[in-house]
């Protein structure tokens, strides 16, 4: 960096990225990928969710990972956040369960209660 203008551009670019993250709307799917989650099989679960969202052409979705979700005995854990709805937490996930969660909950809007630790009901 050699000029104030370059520094100001870098600052603005960073602020724009933060703004994009805050403004993101749609479905957010989070997989716990701390060491306990990875040891329990979270990586294949995450990869299945990514593959299925692309294969099914699901729009307006962010599939991402996070660290510890605080319930190691229930790993792998998937959390689904849909706009206007409560968070749904799926436990002891497998790639097969991930496919069903993508199809039933994310695409069709029906929570797969058999895989949940808790879900908001209306």
Describe the overall structure.
- A five-stranded mixed sheet has the order 2-1-3-4-5, covered by helices on one side.
- It is elongated and about 60 Å long.
- By secondary structure, it is an alpha+beta fold.
- It has four helices and five strands; from the N terminus they run αβααβββαβ.
- The relative contact order is 0.17.
| Tally of separate helices | 4
Along the chain, the helix and strand elements come as HEHHEEEHE
Structural class per helix/strand content?
A: alpha+beta
Share of residues in helices: 40-55%
Biggest sheet, strands in spatial order?
2-1-3-4-5
Overall 3D shape: elongated
Mean pLDDT: 88
Radius of gyration: 17 Å
Q: What ranges have pLDDT less than 50 throughout 5 or more consecutive residues?
A: none
Q: Give the CA-CA distance, first to last residue.
A: 54 Å
Specify the biggest β-sheet: 5 strands, mixed
Q: What percent strand?
A: 15-25%
How many distinct beta strands?
A: 5
């Amino acid at each position: 960096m050699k000029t104030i203008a370059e520094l100001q551009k870098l600052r603005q670019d960073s602020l724009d990225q933060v703004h994009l993250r805050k403004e993101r709307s749609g479905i957010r799917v989070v997989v716990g990928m701390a060491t306990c989650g990875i040891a329990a099989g979270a990586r294949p679960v995450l990869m299945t969710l990514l593959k299925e969202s692309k294969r099914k052409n699901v729009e307006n979705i962010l599939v991402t990972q996070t660290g510890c979700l605080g319930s190691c005995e229930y790993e792998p854990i998937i959390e689904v956040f849909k706009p206007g709805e409560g968070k749904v937490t799926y436990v002891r996930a497998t790639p097969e369960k991930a496919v069903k969660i993508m199809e039933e909950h994310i695409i069709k809007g029906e929570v797969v209660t058999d895989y949940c630790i808790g879900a908001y009901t209306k």
